[in-house]
Amino acid sequence: MSLIRMEGVGKRYSQGGETLKVLDGISLDIGQGEFVAIVGPSGSGKSTLMNVLGCLDVADEGLYELDGTAVRSMKDSELAVIRNRKIGFVFQSFNLLPRLTAFENVELPLIYRGLGRKKREAAALRALDDVDLLNRKDHRPAQLSGGQQQRVAIARALAGDPPILLADEPTGSLDSATGAELLSLLKRLSEQGKTIVMITHDAAVAQQARRIVTILDGKIVHEAIIER
To answer: Which pLDDT band, with edges at 50, 70 and 90, does 227 fall under?
Structure first.
């Protein structure tokens, strides 16, 4: 069974009295442990697709099943639970809280989940260890390099042990060497069973995934498996 399954997904927005179809008949299957890059130029619909995949927005038509559950008819509160338990988010801008240490940033979503102190501390430390940052757990974001901040963001996404990691332009704020290190980390996480869906406009970055899905004008126009 696919972890992510879309059939005929469409999304429309109203703008200036006109209705724009931003996603048009998207069908996509992604299995556990896959590392998939969704690539396309600005305005192609890839950001809207990311929002629908991440349950930040809901499709207007078609089927979207996440881990066997149809999400289109869910209430906002139910979608929030899905986001908290099924999906880890990694953004280009890191989105770390500057006054908190790396450990506290990673622990915070687990507090919102209601996890007990011992369990959430253990989970946060384990996630920081997964990204090789235990020795920086007491550092605040300003004391970390860009690559280290992004690894803290990945640890935060991993701490709740979600099956899916959704990364939006994760190397966009990094230099090429640091970006390469980050992509190696994502590949390792995929090999360990995490499903990685990476949104990018950079063809070279997309080549590091196992599969590339190209979107244009709201439609999937090409899919390719990258042979290693």
So the answer is: confident
The pair of three-digit structure tokens given for residue 217, joined into one six-digit string: 């004008």
Q: Is 106 exposed, middle or buried (0-12, 13-18, 19+ CB in 10 A)?
A: buried
Q: 130-184: per-residue pLDDT in tens? A: 999 999 999 999 999 999 999 999 999 999 999 999 999 999 889 999 999 999 9
Burial class from Cβ neighbours inside 10 Å (0-12, 13-18, 19+) for residue 186 reads buried
Asked whether the predicted pLDDT for residue 55 surpasses 90, the reply is yes
Cβ-count burial 33-60 (b if 16+ within 10 Å, e if not): bbbbbbbbeeebbbbbbbbbbbbebebe
Domain hosting 185: range is 32-57+75-225
Q: What is the distance between the alpha carbons of residues 25 and 219, in angstroms, rounded to a whole number?
A: 7
pTM comes to: 0.92
Q: What is the CATH number of the domain that holds 198?
A: 3.40.50.300
Handedness of CA 26, 204, 146, 157 (dihedral sign): positive
Q: Is 219 part of a structural domain of the chain?
A: yes
Residue 152 CA to residue 94 CA, distance in Å, equals 8
Q: What are phi and psi of 111, to 5 degrees?
A: -65, -45
How many domains does the structure of the chain reveal?
1
